[in-house]
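so my prof wants the structure for this chain in the tokens format not the other one, which i didnt know existed until like an hour ago. anyway here's the sequence
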Amino acid sequence: MARACKVVTTTAIVLTFIASALSLPAQTLLLADSAYSSVLQRMKTFGIMLPQGYDTARRYPVLYLLHGWGGGYKDWSSKTHLAEDVAWYDLIVVMPDGENSWYVNSAVNPRGRFEDYIASELPALVASRYAADTSKQAIAGLSMGGYGAVLLGMKYPARYSVIGSFSGALTMPRDLRVREGWNRAAKGNNGDFALPSLQEAFGKENSSAREKQSVFTALRTVTAFDSARKQHLPYVYLATGIQDPLSHIVPGNREVRDSLYAAKLRYEYHETPGKHSWDYWNEALKSFLPRMMELTGWK
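here's what i got, hopefully its the right format
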């Protein structure tokens, strides 16, 4: 029998996009919470889903789910079956609003420190307001969010147990050069609406930030670790739809897979039928969640 998903507030704004009747255990909680970000210098809202029977006397593992370009904090809870998929786990899910930041500290905007916000400030805020165990964290995302998850997971490996990427745009910002070439050839009229946000995130051509914010640079850093330290790096879960129409997605994911293999890091790689779409990401998330719980042993 379908049961209502209970929506409550703390300092939160009730999310209006949740369905009124879902097949969920009772007391699944979906919130939107807001706080002033000192690193972004403005108010930011994030989505948070709390497990059934949420108990403030306990401490729960946390999964950070990052949205894609053009999205926001409501995406995962409104466009997938997230509530149903996580209902059986004692897990807090946090859904930040990363805007079109690529989850990095902007190369040109001092108020665009999204790396600091996602990796440091937001987890501290969540731990102060909710029963979150900051020693048990995972990070995952789709497209731009997949890039952000892998980059932040490898730059701050002690903070995460598992990294998940679904259709991750993993060759950014390297492929930005190609897009800029197309833009010049089309004399600025090629309709690349994402280009301004990419250049704000990574800087103009020849910016040193581009190399620093490369997934491959982060991988080279951890590749130098000895075998004992590598065993404590996050487990990397890569998934991509084989029919993805964006030409850089599948080759880029294969390139990262090969880099993980060469570095002898712990990972798994999945190519399955699917496009760059919510149909695919919904299934990818459904497959990822039980695997993440199995890998971590979180209860």
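also thought this was worth mentioning. The first strand starts at residue 12 and ends at 13.
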